[in-house]
Amino acid sequence: MSQTVTDKHYEGGCLCGAVRFRGTGTPEFVSHCQCTTCRKTSGTGHSTDAGFKTAHLAITGDLSRFAMATDSGNTIEICFCPDCGSKVMTTNAAYPDVAAINLALFDTPGALTPTIVFFTRSAVPWDLIGGDVERYETQP
Ligand SMILES: [Zn+2]
Ligand SMILES: [Zn+2]
C-alpha cells in the first residue's frame, strides 16, 4: 500500500451529488463498526468509515446534522445530505480534530482497506466480516 504519500487524496460524494468531499493524505483509521447506532444509520449490519483529520478534509454542499449521546457519554454528530439522505460523516466531540467519512460514498471505495472492527459484541449473526482485521468488543 502506498498510503504514506502525503499528497494522496480520496474523493467521493453522496447519492445525489449535492455533497462532495476530499480527504488528503493517509486516513487516521479505516474501520468497520457494528454498534447499534451504525447499524441503524447504515441500514445494514455495520458502518464502514475512513477517518481523516478535519484539517485534511474538504467538504462542499450542505449537511443535515443529528446529534446524540453515545453509551460512553460522548456526543456524536451524524451528518447527512439533506436532499438524498446519504450518511456522509460522523464526528465525535471527544475527538474534534477527526471526522469519519462513510467509505461507501467514495468514488473508489476499494482504494482503502478496513483494518479494524469495533463493537463486535453488538454484531448481528448475519453480519459476517472476514479478512485480516483487528476485532474489538467495544471501542478501545
Ligand atoms: Zn445527496
Ligand atoms: Zn458504530
Show the helix and strand layout.
Blueprint: E1 9-13, E2 20-24, E3 29-33, H1 36-42, E4 47-53, E5 57-60, E6 64-69, E7 75-80, E8 87-92, E9 98-102, E10 116-118, E11 134-135
Bound molecules: zinc ion (2 copies).
> What is the topology, as strand order, of the major beta sheet?
6-7-8-9-4-3-10-11
CATH architecture assignment name of the domain at 9-61 and 94-135: Beta Complex
What's the pLDDT, averaged over the residues? 94
In the predicted model, the low-confidence regions spanning at least 5 consecutive residues are none
Descriptive account of the structure:
With 140 residues, the chain is mainly beta. It has a domain at 9-61 and 94-135: Metal Binding Protein, Guanine Nucleotide Exchange Factor, Chain A, CATH 2.170.150. Helix content is 5%, strand content 39%. An eight-stranded mixed beta sheet has the order 6-7-8-9-4-3-10-11. Strands 1-2-5 form a three-stranded antiparallel beta sheet, with no helix packed on it. Bound molecules: zinc ion (ZN) (2 copies). The site of one zinc ion (ZN) has 6 residues, from α1.
Key words describing this protein structure:
140 residues, single chain, three-stranded antiparallel β-sheet, binds zinc ion, eight-stranded mixed β-sheet, Metal Binding Protein, Guanine Nucleotide Exchange Factor, Chain A, 1 helix, mainly beta
